[in-house]
Batch of 2 targets.
Target 1
Amino acid sequence: MPSPKVYGETAQDDGRRAVEACFGQDFDLGQPGRSGWMASERSPYGVELGVRYPVCDGQALIDAAHAAMPGWQRIGAQGRAGVCLEILEAVAYAYREMKFIPHETVWEKPQGKNPPLKMKKHFEIVGRGVALVIGCGTFPTWNTYPGLFAALATGNPVIVKPHQNAILPAAITVRIAREVLAEAGLDPNLVTLAAFDKHEATQALATHPAVKSIDFTGGNAFGQWLISNAKQAQVYAELAGVNNVVIESTDQYKAMLRNLAFTLCLYSGQMCTTTQAILVPADGIDTDQGRKSYDEVCADLATSIDKFLADPAVATAVLGAIQSPDTLARIAEAPAHGRVVRASTKIEHAEFPGAEVRSPLLLACDAADEKAYMEERFGPSPSSSRSPTARGGDLSERIVRESALTVGLYTTKPEVVDAMTEATWRAGVALSINLTGGVFVNQSAGFSDYHGVGMNPAANASLSDSAFVANRFRVVQRRHHVE
Amino acid sequence: MPSPKVYGETAQDDGRRAVEACFGQDFDLGQPGRSGWMASERSPYGVELGVRYPVCDGQALIDAAHAAMPGWQRIGAQGRAGVCLEILEAVAYAYREMKFIPHETVWEKPQGKNPPLKMKKHFEIVGRGVALVIGCGTFPTWNTYPGLFAALATGNPVIVKPHQNAILPAAITVRIAREVLAEAGLDPNLVTLAAFDKHEATQALATHPAVKSIDFTGGNAFGQWLISNAKQAQVYAELAGVNNVVIESTDQYKAMLRNLAFTLCLYSGQMCTTTQAILVPADGIDTDQGRKSYDEVCADLATSIDKFLADPAVATAVLGAIQSPDTLARIAEAPAHGRVVRASTKIEHAEFPGAEVRSPLLLACDAADEKAYMEERFGPSPSSSRSPTARGGDLSERIVRESALTVGLYTTKPEVVDAMTEATWRAGVALSINLTGGVFVNQSAGFSDYHGVGMNPAANASLSDSAFVANRFRVVQRRHHVE
């Protein structure tokens, strides 16, 4: 929903028409090695898409990528950053790291009374090779762009392999990238789309000796498969985890519940950052509205969700639609894992009758029942665990060490904040403290939050630090005498 | 041999006395988990050493390292850089990368007519965990310090595992580091020495789940073992390769031969950067002294080595001594791999009668006989390969793709320089062009050469780029509302 003030009054209609113009058409990209067409996307809103994408041979894409590389290297860090800026703006880190490398220097070594030795040294920034970016089904742009631009800006051709049910946003991006590259007189095969209809084709590409880096966002199973099998490549994996919130006490009970309700509803919990476990002491919490028992906290959170979703227009806008049949299945089987505090309901979408909209399901369980909440379950079925008093922080740390991207904390006690802060340093997770307003634990701000820490199994990289770009290129030097 | 002008007239004697004072003594470091003492070092100069080092349990060192970590994190990037500066100066890259991370910031999000959302965000630099630095037998300091300081300065405790025959330099370094740390009020167990008398102990430590990074310099066999087996750690490996020099033509024939002779003699070729194959066209080369046949080039290079080593004092100073019995064995078996152009000779050392000093052996072979030169053979036994005209550059590139750290080129033709430059960009190796003076292909200048490129199997990292430090720490953030 683009803001009319920022993007113009007709932006929403324009965007919709532009997307609908793609429906039922071939999405041609002028890529080499095309063996056929595929149309695999299924809209969670029940809209017929029928966009057909070129299925290209992986080896042909790699060959084309190699052929495109020297010209990309030749225009240098500044040229590449300029071209990438025309595609998108997120190349600042890559540019900074490359700018540290001097283009050339004259080196002198004193020789006592004799004239100094003088050498000219040239330093060439060389991309490490073909980059593969594997997108996910729920965030096809947000989660594809960091790897795409980090790899491209540092000198590497990029093959974009979108999720088979979220190809269009990637295909549009690839098309624009190819247009900008061609306009700049560069080989458009620096960016290609690998729309594969066979999972084996993705696996073959990921383990191809020429593929030197892989950016992956998605489920833990394929992420771990990539880390274990694509040993020829540097793998940057953003997976998922049991994000958790520790409630120790609060002086803003209602605002806390409102904040948590929004987090659990936003995009039906289909975010790698959404809270999956809420840890509440078994003997309850102190609040500005008096002592609240564990059961009261659970019930009040359920009520808060109900209130938030009372207006169907708000509900459908915030919940979005369930992207995958797997997630629908997880909602269906969730009641087996605990006591249902709030059941998931199907919500009709006024505009899209086929949309699969679901409200969150809320479970209660004992902290001792670890299998109820220790396993990551993507989607809107979080658990609220009853943990022994004062054990919330320890339990949270243990969960994070298994895998987590976000942790929240509610407390009125500075010493609890300090202890939790140190726990998150040890386990490696971003901490949000006492969120009661319009910021939510599952949201990362683009230029001031380190999304993904890269210290626990939920992610082996952050998307916004030097490590994310510095290892994607090498410096090849040459030197010779000068007078 | 310290310069008397720079280090004082008595520096050499002072240094010798300081080392001799260690002989036959326990080298105590006050480390935990000591199970015994070992004295494994054997001097290549035939000097009795008998220094006894504490053998400590790897798990005890890891436990002590973990206990030391929070205090190290607490003093921050500036504090760590300061302490490291007192131990050594090579921490600039690590400091630069850490300084990019703001300590804290206030973030505002406009809310239309309402007051903006304001959050305070804190960013903590957290070392990824225990670092293991595995030294080599020939360069126990130069090759240990980059990893040691990169890991330490970025927040990680470091366990130094020296080569069992080159412990003393590492032990002295560790002792100084521990003294400086303790003086700064920090836990000295941030730097410990792991003097192991069993190879299995090194393997167990390298694959320990708590070890998060490994810096290794040494042979390809153990380096590849580490890369394949220490999957829990980021491995920074500097191995060895078939460094090569392509001679296409020269306008300084004598100076070229002098330069190559010095390279082959320096430290008896026991450097990971020493030339192992010299590629000369089968039909000879153009020089300022007329056309020279392949055999003439070989013979003239041998004569140049003879002349350079004619003065025994120069010879012993430049050659050093053969560090390992394995290298002596490789010299003995080298004649099997080609035609001996110059035989290796044993040279008596005036001061150290037990020193194993050897002059370089020079072999001639055909380029087609790949097994003669394609395999890395550490030590002073390079091959001069007769390659079909104009194929030198292609062959060099193929060798580099297998593994190489340095390449040299002699040519008078700019187009050959250009072609070779592009070949080194593709294969990833540092190129030295027409070295005829006091700079040698096997030497890297500390602050202006990118030692190790990290693009071919000879090394998976450079010692002097952002990638060497940026992945050793993570940023853990926390955020909360502010008014």
Target 2
Amino acid sequence: MSTVIFALRRLDGGEAARVALPLVRRTRDPHEGQWALPGGWLDIAESLDAAASRTLAETTGLAPSYLEQLYAFGAVDRSPTRVVSIVYWALIRADEISEDAVEPLFATENVQWFDAAALPRLAFDHNEIVDYALWRLRNKVGYSRIAHGLLADEFTLADLREVYEAILGRRLDPANFRRQVENSGTLIPTDRFRTGSHRPARLYRYNQDVELADRGPLDAVH
Amino acid sequence: MSTVIFALRRLDGGEAARVALPLVRRTRDPHEGQWALPGGWLDIAESLDAAASRTLAETTGLAPSYLEQLYAFGAVDRSPTRVVSIVYWALIRADEISEDAVEPLFATENVQWFDAAALPRLAFDHNEIVDYALWRLRNKVGYSRIAHGLLADEFTLADLREVYEAILGRRLDPANFRRQVENSGTLIPTDRFRTGSHRPARLYRYNQDVELADRGPLDAVH
């Protein structure tokens, strides 16, 4: 089991938020010393979903609210012994990565955030797995309200646009973007504003009647 | 490994085509005598995709052109011993199910087509798996040209509408449907017509520049 966890982070003091993911440095062979996706082994009395949550908590301390099965990777030569890896992917919101809760674990230097678009050579087939997860994220941001998985409960239109820009890897026109999301009917304006160095910006929230991502019959089952 | 194979069939001499799938009668415990999805075990030196194709051919004789990983099912109690099943799904076109090639195998009475909307109680969690596959099919028919996976190379608009009606489980207005698909730009009219008891109907084909279903980076890898 491995998990690709995406968050929006400002890395190395950069201006623009990037899609980032935490990686774990391997402490044993194969691939000792290389960076790899957080993960672990499925226990005999544990469902796949439960194993994904547990291995993620054990390796990174993170407990994302959005965690979904991505794909089973089973190429014969992906590992020295035959290993089929059932990979999950997760989105984690900025307010779920409080410095208090998470950074101590990360301070071990064996867990670190990386820019998803500029990864080193990872262990096993993990570069390929991240590429596939990024493709799924880009795809899904078009037809579901999955961007919410990377945002706090209330956000400005500029926050939302930043998520889309980071995922799609290109700048979006602010006026067009505002028109499109206002027409989509998925956002509810609140009567609160964010104030600060810029002029006050209205805070929005997502319409909770719409699921984050429709998983169909599996939503009820798991 | 198990596979859900969807085809469009006229069952029991019914008028309307239905989404149907072949099931295999189990000849041993657990669930001896019950119907189950075709499948088998992963070999040690075989990729997941290869195992899905092989087990499908061995159990049903079918070799669908569209075969894609669906989901890994791993509930602890889904089988008497702990078994994680990596499930594939396939679409098979009417012209891939020639009576010559396939029906002899089916004549063993241990393989049979069933209406996907009216299944008996299946072995293991296979009803749940079929429900999930049907949900994925309905979902995907909206935003990709996956309906093609159930059609011959050339088809009339009535053929195409029949596929959509069978998948969505409701009648569609012929004039609206024609306008929508003509506006979608995915169909190319040929200069051939189907003649018969009705007035001649133009044959169309799909624009092959568009992938049947975009699988992203995995298209290149597998």
